[in-house]
């Protein structure tokens, strides 16, 4: 490890035993590190590669007891069977629901975040405490109450029931609050002197500056809504016309006595494509979002 | 001037309420009201299928709680079975994923290492995919004809492939039982203590360890979460200023000293966060169970969240509500205990 001497009176190298690693040891450590990292990376990718390869196999080949990554008989039959089944409707439902959840979270979380960051009014502390409290309520605990409330509101088996309860989330409100607190107050004061009211300031001054935060929020909202299973199961678990891709996939396993693995793998891979694309395109926001959660947590 | 100030205050007030209204309304209707309603229902005998409105349902006091916690019967033994499975799940997954995440972060963070971005991407990738899709892919790999069995068959002589998730015999056997079995110890040879019934399960049953099927799901859980936790550690590692290490080096600290006496203590808040998130997440494990095993084989992957779901489906709503609060309590207890332990050490 090369360390630049910081002062002119650099400590002689022999006085730094911690940095006195023989070069061969450095090399060994480096090789071991690569070995570990490459095997873990392989472990992360192999299941996906295996799933893709299976999705292009015939059913008999898919269940043959052998390790075969390249299909002997390449076929797109599984994808054809998939599109003939409930997949298209489920994909439509997933897109629809994810779109509205995304729109809701962008609007409601940024509004709430702004109010908590900048506006001074009675009850602000209480609302903030409630938002914090809602973060500590484990999602699973909400299965029963959500089901009961949605049935009281007649929202079971409906799109509004799937969308509205998850249109805001404490993490998103936090993210936006934190971001808005970093914007200089002077900008708003200047706009206020020019006669703008709070709504105008929010729409014309604050939101245009919030691009990166909104992008992070949007990505996590889409990913969350797209991958969600339990909430949809509670709302519409017994009503196939409202199945999302996750619900639809989950029930595939139970149909028929011969499980159609190529179709299940094809469905799993197609379900993964949108989030995978999003991740590859906007990796920076994902990584920043996760790191942010960790550092602020 | 005062007038402007007043009107600004008023504007802040109205704007504040309007801005908060949608989020607060949603949280109130779908988080806070439901929680209170569930608490109410947990003391009543009620189901949505019943003709009586919830408010008029008969009050049964602590009966729902007692059925799960105290009264001998199927409800109680299912509850403690789920507690047992879930406890093994938490105690297995949390330490392993935390340790591996830290290890990987330290390896990736080395100065001489190339390809950091690639590894970061590769490790994080599974976290962004849907739990349903991943669970199905792993379910397929765990089949007796699947990749994992075929791989083990190829490298371990004498290995017999079996369905890790569904096999009613080996799949349902606890790991500790498997190990003891290898030494010829089973419930008959273990001694009389083994058949002692504690809360509906035999002592032998309590000490089973996670079943093979549950272990398979635990491995999947570690696999998906590892990347996220590694990223969190990596961000924290990069936050440690370089001069801390330089100073330590000048003082003559060795590499391992630096790791144990600088890196680990400075990462303590991150570890606290990672372990807390891990505990909260693993006590709630549901998706994987629902998609892969539905609690089987022989109830060895029955977890508390899945039991809540089952009770909701069976319309024993009062018990489902009571169970939800018990789980809430368990999670709170574990989180507090863990935080106390971490604080005491620092």
Q: Please report the number of helical segments of chain B.
A: 15
Strand element count of chain A: 0
What count of helical segments of chain A does DSSP give? 15
- How much of the sequence lies in strands of chain B comes to under 5%
Task: Specify the oligomeric state.
Answer: heterodimer
Q: Report Rg of chain B.
A: 25 Å
Plain-language structure description:
The complex is a heterodimer of chains A (297) and B (346). With 297 residues, chain A is an all-alpha fold. Chain A has 15 helices and no strands. Chain A has helices spanning 23-55, 59-62, 77-84, 87-118, 124-135, 143-152, 159-163, 170-181, 185-193, 198-209, 211-227, 230-236, 245-252, 261-281, 283-296. In chain A, helix 1 packs across helix 14, helix 3 (77-84) crosses helix 14 (261-281) and helix 9 crosses helix 10 (198-209). Mean pLDDT of chain A is 85; it is low at 1-18. Chain B is an all-alpha fold and 346 residues long. A two-stranded antiparallel ribbon of chain B has the order 1-2. The longest helix of chain B is centred in the N-terminal third of the chain and has 40 residues, at 2-41. In chain B, helix 2 (63-69) crosses helix 15, helix 3 (74-108) runs parallel beside helix 9 (212-239) and helix 3 packs antiparallel against helix 12 (268-283). Chain B has 15 helices and two strands. In chain B, strand 1 and strand 2 form a beta hairpin. At the A-B interface, helix 1, helix 4, helix 5, helix 6 and helix 10 of A face helix 1, helix 3, helix 4, helix 5 and helix 6 of B.
């Amino acid at each position: 490890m090369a360390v630049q001497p910081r002062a002119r009176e650099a400590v002689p190298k022999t006085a730094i035993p911690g940095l006195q690693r023989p070069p061969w040891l450095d090399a060994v450590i480096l090789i071991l590190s690569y070995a570990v990292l490459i095997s873990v990376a392989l472990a992360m990718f192999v299941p996906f590669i295996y799933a893709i390869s299976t999705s292009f196999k015939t059913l008999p080949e898919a269940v043959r007891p052998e390790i075969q990554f390249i299909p002997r008989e390449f076929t797109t039959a599984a994808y054809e069977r998939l599109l003939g089944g409930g997949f298209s409707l489920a994909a439509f439902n997933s897109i629809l629901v994810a779109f509205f959840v995304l729109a809701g979270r962008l609007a409601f979380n940024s509004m709430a975040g702004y109010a908590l960051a900048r506006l001074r009014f009675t009850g602000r502390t209480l609302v903030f405490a409630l938002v914090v409290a809602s973060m500590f309520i484990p999602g699973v605990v909400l299965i029963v109450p959500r089901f009961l409330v949605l049935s009281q509101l007649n929202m079971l088996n409906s799109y509004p029931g799937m969308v509205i309860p998850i249109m805001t989330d404490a993490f998103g409100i936090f993210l936006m609050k934190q971001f808005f607190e970093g914007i200089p107050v002077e900008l708003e004061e200047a706009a206020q002197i020019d006669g703008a009211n709070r709504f105008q300031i929010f729409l014309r001054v604050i939101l245009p500056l919030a691009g990166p935060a909104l992008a992070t929020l949007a990505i996590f909202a889409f990913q969350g809504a797209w991958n969600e299973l339990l909430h949809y199961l509670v709302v519409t678990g017994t009503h196939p016309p409202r199945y999302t891709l996750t619900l639809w996939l989950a029930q595939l396993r139970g149909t028929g006595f011969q499980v159609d693995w190529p179709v299940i793998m094809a469905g799993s891979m197609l379900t993964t494509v949108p989030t995978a694309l999003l991740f590859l395109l906007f990796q920076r926001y994902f990584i920043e979002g996760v790191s942010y959660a960790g550092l602020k947590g | 001037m005062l007038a402007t100030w007043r009107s600004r205050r008023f504007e802040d007030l109205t704007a504040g309420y309007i801005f908060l209204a949608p989020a607060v309304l949603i949280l109130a209707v779908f988080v806070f009201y439901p929680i209170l309603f569930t608490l109410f229902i947990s003391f009543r005998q009620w189901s949505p299928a019943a003709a009586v409105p919830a408010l008029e349902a008969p009050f049964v006091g602590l009966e729902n709680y007692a059925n799960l916690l105290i009264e001998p019967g199927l409800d109680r033994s299912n509850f403690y079975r789920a507690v047992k499975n879930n406890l093994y799940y938490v105690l297995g997954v949390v330490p392993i994923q935390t340790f591996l995440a830290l290890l990987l972060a330290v390896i990736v963070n080395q100065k001489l290492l190339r390809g950091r971005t690639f590894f970061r991407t590769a490790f994080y990738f599974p976290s962004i995919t849907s739990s349903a899709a991943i669970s199905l892919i792993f379910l397929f790999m765990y089949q007796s004809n699947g990749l994992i069995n075929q791989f083990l068959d190829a490298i371990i002589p004498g290995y017999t492939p079996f369905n890790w998730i569904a096999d009613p015999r080996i799949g349902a056997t606890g790991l500790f039982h498997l190990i003891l079995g290898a030494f010829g110890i089973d419930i008959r040879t273990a001694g009389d203590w083994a058949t002692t019934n504690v809360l509906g399960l035999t002592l032998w049953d309590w000490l089973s360890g996670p079943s093979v099927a549950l272990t398979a799901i635990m491995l999947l859980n570690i696999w998906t979460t590892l990347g996220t936790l590694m990223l969190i550690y990596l961000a924290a590692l990069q936050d440690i200023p370089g001069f801390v290490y330089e100073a330590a080096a000048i003082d003559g600290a060795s590499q391992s000293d630096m790791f144990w006496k600088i890196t680990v203590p400075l990462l303590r808040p991150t570890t606290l966060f990672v372990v807390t998130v891990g505990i909260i997440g693993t006590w709630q494990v549901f998706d994987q169970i629902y998609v892969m095993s539905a609690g089987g084989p022989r109830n060895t992957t029955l977890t508390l969240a899945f039991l809540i779901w089952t009770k909701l489906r069976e319309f024993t709503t009062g018990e489902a509500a009571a169970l939800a609060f018990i789980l809430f309590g368990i999670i709170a207890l574990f989180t507090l205990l863990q935080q106390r332990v971490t604080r005491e050490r620092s």
